[in-house]
Design goal:
Number of strands: 13
Largest sheet: 6 strands, mixed
Order of helices and strands: HHHEEEHHHEHEEEEHEHEHEHEHEH
Shape: globular
Strand content: 15-25%
Structural class: alpha+beta
């Protein structure tokens, strides 16, 4: 079933091409500019273009996967509806058509006759992506297709995507804002157990050519199933296992912590995390990007106490982190139990709706979250966080 993961890599790259095209092709970029005007937005564009970009990415992923793996497209879920209403009051369902011309015609109806934009968008939607990964192609693993569910966040950190800042400087590799914080998230989970199995994070905007102004991206993946754990950031194999284990063990118990947090995090949590991390706290945009910072090893921890991330935000990174020996856990539950008990920590699950909720809140990570790479580091971090929060901890 590694062929499913390989195909997800390909469709994530096609999605990244769509995201880049909307910023680099003039006809599409002008529609993005309209999004910046808020109340002064040109009323002739009935469809919210950023949402159309989101929907197109989501539909491309769904339909490409359905074509390759019949039945799988119906198990792909995300936050976007693919129905639009244009100026004439027509309800239009956005679906990838069989030809580029037919897709352009459909998009023209959504975009109220903007032919240039419709044709530019249809062209990139129908372009083939040639992506290979020798590691995945050589991997033989069998996962029953019927147990697979997929969460998609087509363009995470939409505000940064629309704002389009390209010259933000990083702080020790972590970007507080800007296009680098935009990610495409695809997470595969077990419909029966809710455990994350495979994850793809595509970062479309990593580096920009100063001459052509074109962007290059980067893709990260991981697979964790029945004892098989493999990911795209494998440890340096030039060192012996014993050397690596000794170094990791020394680091886990001696080095200071670092954490990436949301700018909207509660002051009490910010203060406690800052004390635990001795100031090595990096604010950043985008739930997907903050999780990616942990995957990349730029931070030990991503912590968020609010209930405003969702299953589509966390599933992809969770699968990759599981393949690395880490995970994503429920923050509230962690604070209500002592890490010293040695009990299994409450990993986020992806198959059950929140009771009594409605709308997107059905799939909210209600207790907040902590993403981590090392269980030992997480246990130590939690012990110190609880000490610093004191009686405030239950209020999170």
């Amino acid at each position: 079933m590694s062929d499913v993961l390989l195909e997800l890599l390909r469709v994530s790259e096609k999605a990244a091409n769509i995201a880049r095209a909307c910023r680099q092709q003039e006809a599409l970029f002008q529609l993005l500019i309209e999004e910046k005007k808020g109340a002064e937005k040109n009323k002739k564009f009935a469809a919210d273009f950023k949402t159309l970009a989101d929907v197109l990415v989501q539909e491309v992923i769904k339909q490409n996967m359905e074509n390759k793996f019949p039945g799988l497209g119906k198990k792909i879920f995300g936050e976007e509806s693919n129905e639009f209403t244009n100026d004439l009051g027509e309800k239009i369902t956005v679906e990838l058509q069989s030809t580029e011309e037919e897709t352009a015609e459909l998009l023209s109806r959504v975009l109220n006759g903007n032919v240039l934009a419709s044709e530019a968008l249809a062209k990139v939607v129908h372009e083939d992506v040639d992506l290979t990964d020798p590691t995945l192609e050589s991997l033989e693993i069998s996962i029953p297709q019927e147990i697979l569910g997929i969460w998609v966040d087509p363009i995470d950190s939409t505000y940064q995507y629309i704002k389009g800042s390209a010259n933000v400087k990083s702080n020790k590799g972590v970007f507080p804002s800007g296009l680098q914080c935009v990610t495409i998230l695809i997470g595969v989970y077990d419909l029966q157990t809710g455990l994350p199995l495979m994850g793809v994070i595509n970062q479309p905007f990593v580096s920009q050519n100063s001459t052509t102004l074109r962007w290059k991206g980067q893709c990260y993946w991981g697979l964790s199933y029945m004892g098989t754990n493999i990911h795209s950031l494998q440890l340096d194999i030039s060192k012996s296992d014993s050397e690596t284990q000794t170094e990791n063990s020394d680091r886990e118990f001696s080095s200071p912590f670092s954490a990436v947090i949301s700018t909207s995090e509660k002051d009490t949590i910010k203060a406690a995390v800052s004390r635990v991390c001795e100031g090595s706290v990096f604010p950043a945009a985008g739930a997907g990007y903050k999780s990616l910072c942990v995957v990349q090893g730029l931070a030990d921890i991503y912590i968020f106490s609010e209930d405003t991330t969702y299953k589509w935000d966390s599933c992809a990174a969770h699968a990759i982190l599981r393949a690395m020996g880490g995970g994503i856990v429920d923050l509230k539950e962690c604070l209500e139990r002592s890490p010293d008990t040695g009990l299994d920590l409450p990993q986020l699950l992806y198959h059950v709706e929140n009771k009594g909720a409605s709308g997107v809140d059905l799939w909210a990570n209600k207790g907040g979250l902590i993403a981590y790479r090392s269980r030992n580091r997480l246990d130590t971090f939690l012990s110190r966080l609880i000490q610093n929060l004191g009686p405030l901890k239950i209020q999170t």
